[in-house]
Hints:
Chain A has 503 residues and is mainly alpha-helical. The first copy, chain A, has 21 helices and three strands. Helices cover 64% and strands 3% of the residues of chain A. The interface between A and B is large, with 37 and 37 residues.
Amino acid sequence: MTPEAAYQELRRRAREEALLASCADLLEWDEETYMPRGGVAHRSDQQALLAGLMHERGTDPRWGELLDLLEASPLAADPGAPAAVNVRWLRREYERERRLPRALVEEDARVTTLALEAWAEAREDDDFARFLPWLERLVVLARETAAAVGYAESPYDALLDEYEPGLTVRRLEPLFASLRAELVPLVRRIGEAPRRPPAHLLHREFPVDRQKLFGEAAAAWLGFDVERGRLDVSAHPFCTAIGPGDVRLTSRYDAHDFAEGFLCVLHEVGHGLYEQGLDPEEFGLPMGEAVSLGVHESQSRLWENFVGRSLAFWEHVFPRAQAVFHDALRDVPLDAFHFALNAVAPGPNRVRADEVTYNLHVLVRFELERALIEGTLAPADVPAAWRDAYREVLGVDPGNDAEGCLQDSHWAAGLFGYFPTYTLGNVYAAQFVAAARRDLGDLESGWRRGQFAPLLGWLRDRIHRQGHRWRPDELVERVTGAPPDHGPLVQYLAAKYEALYEL
Amino acid sequence: MTPEAAYQELRRRAREEALLASCADLLEWDEETYMPRGGVAHRSDQQALLAGLMHERGTDPRWGELLDLLEASPLAADPGAPAAVNVRWLRREYERERRLPRALVEEDARVTTLALEAWAEAREDDDFARFLPWLERLVVLARETAAAVGYAESPYDALLDEYEPGLTVRRLEPLFASLRAELVPLVRRIGEAPRRPPAHLLHREFPVDRQKLFGEAAAAWLGFDVERGRLDVSAHPFCTAIGPGDVRLTSRYDAHDFAEGFLCVLHEVGHGLYEQGLDPEEFGLPMGEAVSLGVHESQSRLWENFVGRSLAFWEHVFPRAQAVFHDALRDVPLDAFHFALNAVAPGPNRVRADEVTYNLHVLVRFELERALIEGTLAPADVPAAWRDAYREVLGVDPGNDAEGCLQDSHWAAGLFGYFPTYTLGNVYAAQFVAAARRDLGDLESGWRRGQFAPLLGWLRDRIHRQGHRWRPDELVERVTGAPPDHGPLVQYLAAKYEALYEL
């Protein structure tokens, strides 16, 4: 067999795996958006079957044969060439997949579908006890996964590595420590500032149907192709790429909270732009896939915060918002609106958190889930540990579990090791924006005129089209000239909020 | 291996097949309801992969081993016992599946997804030429399928048998000839009657959002469990059962045509009630599946027409309709509304056809698709043949292809041999209603009070819960005491319309 023929077979197999995975993705999207309640047991069986099938195909020894042949061939010689990238990352996936027993993979798919339903009910009724047996099962499954995959220091490392290749507790601890050291004093100074944002303006009446239309319009302004995607409503906003040409976003809307729904839309649009920017010719192959959750989150946070909370963006968008939400906004000056949108106030909720406190929410989750996986925290003790951590780090009390440890769906979905990528996303985003400014010059003058295409083009070229060409930390260094570093994020936050609050 | 162990393995395999098929069903539902346009190429690849996987698993020789063992065991001795039913029908499916080459199955799945998209565009632009290459490919595929499956007299028989086991051209020809002989004179007498229905009343303004809510309410009144299903909008209404607890209906609405949207809802509700009435314990097995499309259609037509166009039904529902559509209906007397809903007028459209002319639409399709499959009609000649047949049988001219041969999606979906089951459904429905009246006494007095549960309970018991226990014609004979017979349908239509039109 020639290397070329082996490579074609490898591509075909990888694409088929991705096609099957995309069927599971559609089932999950449907579960979160339109599935009737009665469908959950059947959906759990469907997901378990697909997970089992994918695992069976993903562990076929034929992968090993093809990869052995290709790794020794000239096709894999240049590490930056697409074929070499695909071979390298498919090897990684194959080795990881092979270590997982099929029964564990199926059990995981089945349990998470049911656990998500239980979590939704538990959150609705503020009843942690109903979710507890599921959380216990999920932690056991995550620990079994970590043990099967293998790790050097902490079982939590095995989970981190799934979402952010190469990430470890050893790398995360100093990052969170530095952020905490910089951000806690900034939050305190802001809290003591005499200047207060008119946050109440964003809690006037913003009809939900208008918010939906306005969100769709905003998605299009930023460059999201609505013919190749859609925007729906779900309890927990997300973005999922079913395939090239079919990228789906969701948001949630509250008639008395404009910021939450709109910023959620921009956040998911950021994810969607990354997915729409991938190379469709490489669909299903590492060269055509997002490189990591951290880089994914850098895209969502960039559009949500660096663009969507900027004054320049609103100079363009605010008159449009006033036209749609006339009753709520006609008497509001732009600078008051902008200040309200950037109000900093420690609260119990991560998704609704401002830019400054956001990473402290992630810090709490990182410490708790690491302890769960390392076995130093029992699932039953999560509510108390959560409250203690929020009091200590953010100085707030969630009041109840629905607004506390039940607020996020991640654990119910079996996603341990996922939260830290949110903070990495913020760190990367600050570095990317600084680099884009270096390459493109002043960005804000374009935003003021509704021109987002230069920035999007830069991201497409430097990041989206690179797929898995480089490891996330290598990508950051190639694009920005520096390795991952919290400095630019802290400098951005300090400069922006010192000016806003006149510190 | 004991027969009991073999039977458990057979059940497990059949359920897994059904689970995989239900993933494909959800993909199809999504394609018709929410999928963005850009997703169609990827969807086609997904469906081809799933079809190939299902075929690969469905033709595993292990089926043959298990079936051989079970057919010779006491489990298969009593033909009406669930195990015997499952063994008998799974043998039929396995033999059919084995005869189809995998490449044909995958090609069929891929082509129909793309052809449906082309058909929708062709219909929108009244451009048959755009659909023609797809129709040609689909006819070739259907003929290849018939050749692979095998048949005694006509290749069309091999296709009919897929939807209505045991049905042949030889059985259909006299049925359609008798209906034509009885219905054409009835249509003529109605056309000459001096009494005319006030059809314009149903073309007043009926806001679409209110129609949707009213349709959902009506579904619940008839007994459709909305916690275990949903109702959406699609260009071509349909019902699909994703699984027990997840039965989905669609309808379409026109603000100036109350009858079309509402009767579509009742029609799909009828299908949905059958699916919700199946035995969930037997999901994925013949005992837990609808026995044929003809019997399925008998359920939809029964609720749509025998109930939903009856005066008794509207004595209960009309005041509710007046409350919701106050502007359109407040000055309309019940009997005028009822007469308008039962207006008989030959037209070009099947879905919007009245009860009397409906089967003549099916007759046209039967003759044309039979000719396509037997090779006596070229796809390019369909538009002309369609117009000729409509002029001859119904005395109308469709005017254009969008309202003519492009009106239905069936051929684009590769469904040749499907249309005749619509007429069988009408025939069976008339027989079932007569039998229910014999068993339950007067039905209308309950409908007048909104009581549909006795009829639904009777259908559940006699038909839904029987699954594939008997062949469709055997089922009709067991439930009604007579084999399939067009007599009751003709008598029902003659009696109802002679009274309405005072013939």
